[in-house]
């Protein structure tokens, strides 16, 4: 009986300690730094929206806008965004010199955000946008891509979006899929 009581007491202590530790969490404002020095988001940005200004196939004046929000609680800033065409009926090429970034949404852009580099990897169909200065927490921001023209084929095109925190060695986090819809013919092409 003594042995059973002692075992239950030990179990009760373990449960109480475990519950106390479970209730204790790392604050969301604390960044994650791995043993090898890699920096990761503790509280990542969120992909809010993706829109195109023209939905018609082969349209030349279109722009694609991707809007993000980096929560106030995030300690790490955003240094880089990648946008990768994952699904669609056609390849899309870009005018990288026309890439923009701004504070705000696609419909309500305010202050311009300087871009230090914009590249396109044709093999992986990935655009990489690196900001001149990291984007700080509490910021809603939009990246705008200028395609040479919309794809030849209509349908839903999915873009995988990844964000990277500021740091020499940073680990990206996949934010999800952005969806753009292109129509073979449309009377109302302008959607912004």
Give structural notes.
The protein has one helix and twelve strands, in the order αββββββββββββ. The N and C termini lie far apart (75 Å). The protein has one domain: Immunoglobulin-like (Sandwich), CATH 2.60.40. Strand 11 (155-165) and strand 12 form a beta hairpin. The protein is globular, with a radius of gyration of 23 Å. It is mainly beta and 192 residues long. The chain has a five-stranded antiparallel β-sheet with strand order 3-4-10-6-7, with no helix packed on it.
In short:
The protein is 11% helix and 43% strand.
Sum up the structure in keywords.
192 residues; mainly beta; Immunoglobulin-like; five-stranded antiparallel sheet; globular; DUF2808; DUF2808 domain-containing protein
* Number of beta-strand segments: 12
Domains, number: 1
N- and C-termini, Cα separation: 75 Å
- What Rg do the Cα atoms give? 23 Å
Protein name: DUF2808 domain-containing protein
Organism: Waterburya agarophytonicola KI4
InterPro entries: DUF2808
């Amino acid at each position: 009986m003594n042995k059973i009581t002692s075992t239950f007491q030990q179990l009760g202590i373990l449960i109480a300690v475990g519950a106390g530790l479970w209730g204790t969490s790392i604050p969301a404002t604390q960044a994650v730094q791995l043993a090898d020095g890699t920096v990761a988001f503790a509280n990542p940005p969120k992909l809010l929206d993706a829109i195109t200004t023209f939905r018609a196939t082969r349209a030349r004046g279109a722009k694609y806008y991707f809007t993000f929000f980096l929560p106030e609680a995030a300690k790490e800033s955003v240094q880089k965004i990648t946008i990768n065409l994952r699904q669609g009926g056609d390849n899309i090429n870009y005018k990288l010199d026309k890439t923009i970034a701004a504070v705000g949404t696609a419909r309500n852009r305010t202050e311009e955000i300087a871009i230090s580099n914009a590249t396109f990897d044709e093999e992986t169909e990935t655009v990489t946008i690196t900001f001149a200065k990291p984007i700080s927490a509490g910021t809603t921001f939009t990246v705008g891509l200028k395609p040479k023209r919309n794809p030849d084929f209509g349908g839903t095109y999915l873009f995988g979006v990844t964000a990277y925190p500021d740091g020499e060695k940073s680990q990206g986090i996949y934010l999800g899929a952005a969806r753009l819809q292109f129509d073979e013919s449309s009377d109302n092409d302008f959607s912004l």
